[in-house]
Amino acid sequence: MDLNADLGEGGAHDAAILAIVSSANIACGGHTGDAETMRIAIRLAKDHGVRIGAHPSFLDRDNFGRSPQHPPAELLFTQLCKQVDDLINIAEQENYGVTHLKPHGALYNQAADDPLLAEVLIRVIQHCDPNLSLFGLAGSNLLQLAQASGIKIKAEAFADRRYNSDGSLRARRFADACIDQDEEAVQQVLRLIRHQELCSIDGHLIHIKADTFCVHGDGAHAVQLLSSIRQQLIACGYQIGSQS
Length: 244
Fold this sequence. Notes:
The protein is α/β, with parallel strands linked by helices. It has helices at residues 14-18, 35-48, 73-93, 105-111, 115-128, 141-148, 182-195, 222-235; strands spanning 2-7, 23-27, 51-55, 98-101, 133-137, 153-158, 197-199, 205-207, 212-215.
C-alpha cells in the first residue's frame, strides 16, 4: 500500500511524516516552497527511502494555491515546467530521483475534469520527464486522458477528506470537509482497500479504486492520522511501500 503526503510546505512535522509514508509530494514554489525547503525535503526523503514527486501549483502564494485560477494555457505550462524542473534539478544535485508529479490544491481539483488543464499537465510531464507518474483524483477524466497519452498514472484517494456523491472532494470552505479523527480516517482507507467504496457526505455509496492514499502534511493531525493508518494496515497484513 502506498501512503503519500504533501510536504515542504512549511509544516513542523515533515521529518516525522517521512518516517511513515512511502511517497512524498514536495512543494516547488507555486503555492509555497523554495530551493532550500525543496533540498531539505529531498534529503529527508532520501534518508528514509521515500519516493519523491513534484507538487506544482498555480502561482498563488497568497492563497496557498487553493483559490481557483484561469491563467492562459501557455503561461501555466511555462510556470509549471519551471517548478517541476527546479525540483528535478535539486534532486539530481542530491543524487535522488523524482518519480511522480501531483498537482496541488485548486489545480488538482480543476484539472480533474477540465480537459484543457489536463492537457497542460500531460505536456508538462512529457516535457520535463516522460517517465514521471501522474497522481490524480481516482476516477477523474484527468487520469483517463493521461493514460490515453501514454502517461503512467496513480489513482489517489484521501484518508483525511470527505467526498461529494460525484466522487469530487468536499470543498474546504465547508466545516466538514476534513477528517481529523483517527478511527474515521483508518476505516475510510480500509473500506477503500477492501471494497473500493466509501460513503459520500450526503450518504451515497460511491466506487473509488485507488493506488495511493494521501494525508495532507500541513494538517494539524497529520502525524497521528498517518501513524494510525500505517499501524492498522500493517496489523491487517498489508505492506507499506510504493511501486513505480
